[in-house]
Amino acid sequence: MILEVIFSQLMRLPDPASLPLFYGSIILELCKTKNMPQRIATMHMTCVDRFVDWFSYHMSNFEYRWSWADWDDCLVLNQHAPKRYFVKEVIEKCMRFSYREKISECLPDSFEEIAPEYPLISYSVDEEERSVKELVAQIENAFRNKATPEELTEILQEFSRQEGSGALTALSTFFAVLLNSAKKTFSHNFAAMTKYHV
Fold this sequence. Notes:
Blueprint: H1 2-10, H2 20-30, H3 45-60, H4 82-97, H5 100-106, H6 130-144, H7 149-163, H8 167-181, H9 186-195
Pfam families: MIF4G_like (PF09088), MIF4G_like_2 (PF09090)
GO biological process, one term: nuclear-transcribed mRNA catabolic process, nonsense-mediated decay
GO molecular function, one term: RNA cap binding
């Protein structure tokens, strides 16, 4: 009964009364990964998406442990079937909370067909140019040594002074190295960008 009330508030259209995270926090305390509504096929798509958001958040708090094999039946369903959509979206959202390798370890091999592709990382730094290669090494070293934003700014300004019009090159190299260094998860990326006020 309590879960029905919480879910009815979470699924309220057009918007829930409180932030969905509020309901997720309450539900985390009330349920421990076993009960799942059997009505996904009859739910409004907005509600299914909210449920995906909550359930993936819930799973992130329990190390993505779930009896995935119980959902094998969704793999033979049409790609637009609500249950298959739900499972596919949950997997994708979990990968956003974590990273692909971590979630792939939790999934049976049969789920590989609905898991998102490995992300393609484009690291476009012209390391053919000696000065850029040195700048990349300096930035990577600064990250490893937990340099302050001021120290990194000084490295970039020094490169710009030496290269004349190298400000754009310095900035694009900084971002490329920052994003490449923090590519493992969204949290790594967010932490890196927050630290350097990007």
